[in-house]
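Work Package 4 report. The design task specified in the project plan requires that, given a folded chain encoded as structure tokens, an amino acid be chosen for each position. We show below one input record used in the internal validation round.
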């Protein structure tokens, strides 16, 4: 078995990346006393800090110590090494449950796989299979016959367990949960004597009560059997199969007989509402410190956002981050000396090609390709991947199956449900809330990539394009853009729920589209945006244009653009102001660009096509006397 198989049997699971905590099933545990880990050889490591030994723990789980070892001896099972069939890539089938009609004819088969997922298939007219449940009528899964006394359980495994003991048993097709007992099941059991067995959890008890209420008046008799009444050591979520595994068939039959003898005839009652069981006293909530995927920047198990205009390098940024996480190295956001273990990463993108762009970019960034997974949209002939939207069952299934430490969604529009209006208040909040629930349950962090709008004077939450909801639901918001210095970009921490705002990172992107840290700043997105807006103003731009023409004229009419930009920087003109001034001059035909040095040592030059306009003014020497005075007697400054 794998660690995930063990974790699926435990309560209160928290953690990830090879280390988890949970409530120990071998004692009344309310503090997550059990540590669960993965050994280098793939074995599952268990330790109860309250003192329970391993034998007692695995027995409480209905397992044996041998189950703690991987299926392949000596092989360390990786995160994507789930046992699978060679042809389909799916986990192998470990049990087949046959659903029959009233005449014993096969309606469908439900295949249980090693990873505890299920597949339905129906026989077709050519003695083949149609892999779909669509059109299959609601019928009970039956072990034995629906005659005499019939036991009703939550699932097919329990039905087979009871049938092997000599009982008649049945279950619905969908497990436990509100509304999962169908009226068709009641009709199949009409006139029968029924004993309903409940699993040892709140959902199981609520479902058993709902089933008894539905059968009352239709079945000849109805009794509710709670195995906890005769097996006090039953683990949380324990069922009749666990009891048989732990106590043996003979003892289990004795206890079942005791339950039947002691159980009264069911009296209809209001079924407990599962909603109410989700409320508990504050003292039952543990106090937890925030955990970080990237210290101070990206909180673990929560939603973070990267937002920027097009062309800033959002994709390059998240590729840089996931490459570091996948390989256990540092990224530009990490503090000096920080270390981490390699992590499992997933990214979902509808913009860039994995084959033509992203694989190369991640390889150059040093990513561990085995630790990064992404959907193959090219291979999706059925359109199944298009169902991966925020709030969808398909997205939840994928995240819970792979349990990545981080999942990137780029861009947000690609994963927003088609009927959700991103501009409507609270609609985005509702559909992305699923990511918080899943994230806190399995420790998967969501990093959502957004575009920013270019509305003048907008900053902060108003800069998030299409929806301000995503700002509200995110626990950390990162905004990127250009600084005034040529080629230098910034990444600013604009919102942070769990730590002070981090110092802004300054970085460049090289010709291979790789990130390089150039320094830090305490300036924020607003200040950079305001600086850019100021650079757009007409007086600054006109002044900058005059500086360019004068500098070129003094240099003999032309000079390398890098030299011109350096002079402008020393003089105090920003990169943005220079960029816009040069664009205006080129458009007006005042300057042109040319190259020197050939392909090996190519240098871009800028040349003035007209002389600078002095507007009829003459610069006077410093010692020129001024003929006029201000009203206060001070001399009027010379015209420059």
């Amino acid at each position: 078995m794998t660690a995930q198989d063990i974790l699926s049997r435990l309560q209160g699971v928290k953690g990830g990346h090879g280390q988890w905590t949970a409530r120990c099933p071998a004692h009344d545990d309310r503090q997550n006393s059990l540590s669960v880990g993965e050994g280098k050889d793939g074995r599952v490591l268990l330790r109860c800090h309250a003192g329970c030994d391993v034998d007692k723990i695995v027995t409480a789980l209905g397992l044996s110590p041998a189950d703690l070892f991987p299926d392949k001896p000596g092989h360390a099972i990786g995160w994507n090494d789930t046992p699978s069939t060679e042809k389909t890539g799916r986990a192998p089938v470990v049990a087949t449950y046959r659903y029959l009609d009233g005449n014993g004819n096969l309606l469908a088969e439900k295949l249980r796989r090693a990873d505890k997922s299920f597949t339905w298939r129906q026989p077709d007219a050519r003695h083949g299979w149609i892999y779909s449940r669509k059109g299959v009528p609601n019928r009970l899964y039956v072990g034995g016959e629906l005659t005499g006394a019939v036991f009703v359980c939550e699932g097919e495994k329990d039905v087979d367990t009871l049938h092997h003991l000599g009982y008649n048993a049945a279950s619905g097709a969908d497990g436990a949960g509100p509304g999962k007992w169908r009226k068709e099941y009641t009709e199949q059991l009409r006139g029968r004597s029924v004993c309903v067995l409940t699993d040892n959890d709140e959902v199981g008890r609520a479902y058993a009560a709902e089933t008894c209420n539905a059968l009352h008046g239709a079945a000849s008799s109805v009794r509710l059997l709670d195995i906890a009444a005769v097996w006090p050591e039953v683990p949380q979520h324990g069922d009749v199969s666990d009891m048989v595994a732990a106590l043996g068939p003979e003892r289990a039959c004795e206890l079942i007989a005791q339950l039947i003898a002691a159980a009264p005839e069911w009296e209809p009652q209001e079924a407990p509402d599962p909603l109410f069981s989700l409320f508990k006293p504050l003292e039952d909530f543990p106090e937890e410190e925030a955990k970080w995927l990237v210290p101070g920047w990206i909180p673990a198990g929560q939603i973070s956002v990267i937002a920027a205009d097009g062309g800033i390098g959002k994709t390059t940024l998240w590729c840089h981050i996931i490459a570091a996480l996948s390989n256990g190295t540092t990224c530009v956001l990490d503090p000096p000396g920080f270390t981490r273990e390699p992590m499992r990463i997933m990214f979902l993108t509808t913009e860039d090609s994995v084959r033509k762009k992203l694989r190369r970019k991640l390889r150059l960034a040093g990513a561990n390709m085995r630790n990064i997974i992404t959907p193959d949209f090219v291979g999706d002939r059925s359109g199944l991947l298009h169902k991966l939207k925020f709030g969808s069952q398909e997205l939840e299934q994928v995240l819970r199956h792979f349990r990545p430490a981080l999942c990137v969604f780029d861009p947000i529009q690609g994963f927003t449900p088609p009927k959700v209006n991103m501009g409507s208040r609270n609609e985005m909040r509702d559909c992305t809330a699923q990511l918080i629930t899943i994230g806190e349950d399995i420790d998967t962090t969501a990093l959502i990539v957004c575009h920013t709008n270019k509305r003048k004077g907008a900053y902060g939450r108003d800069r998030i394009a299409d929806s301000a909801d995503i700002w509200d639901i995110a626990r950390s918001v990162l905004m990127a853009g250009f600084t005034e210095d040529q080629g230098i970009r910034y990444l600013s921490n604009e919102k942070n729920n769990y730590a002070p705002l981090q110092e802004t990172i300054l970085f460049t992107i090289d010709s291979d589209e790789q990130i390089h840290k150039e320094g830090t700043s305490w300036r924020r997105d607003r200040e950079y945006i305001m600086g850019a807006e100021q650079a757009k103003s007409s007086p600054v731009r006109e002044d900058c244009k005059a500086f360019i023409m004068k500098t070129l004229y003094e240099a003999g009419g032309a000079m390398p653009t890098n030299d011109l930009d350096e002079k402008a920087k020393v003089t105090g003109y920003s990169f943005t102001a220079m960029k816009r001034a040069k664009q205006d001059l080129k458009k007006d035909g005042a300057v042109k660009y040319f190259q020197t040095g050939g392909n090996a040592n190519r240098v871009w030059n800028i040349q003035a096509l007209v002389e600078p306009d002095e507007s009829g003014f003459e610069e006077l020497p410093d010692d020129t006397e001024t003929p006029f005075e201000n009203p206060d007697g001070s001399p009027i400054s010379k015209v420059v």
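The radius of gyration is 34 Å. Validation will be extended to a larger panel in the next phase.
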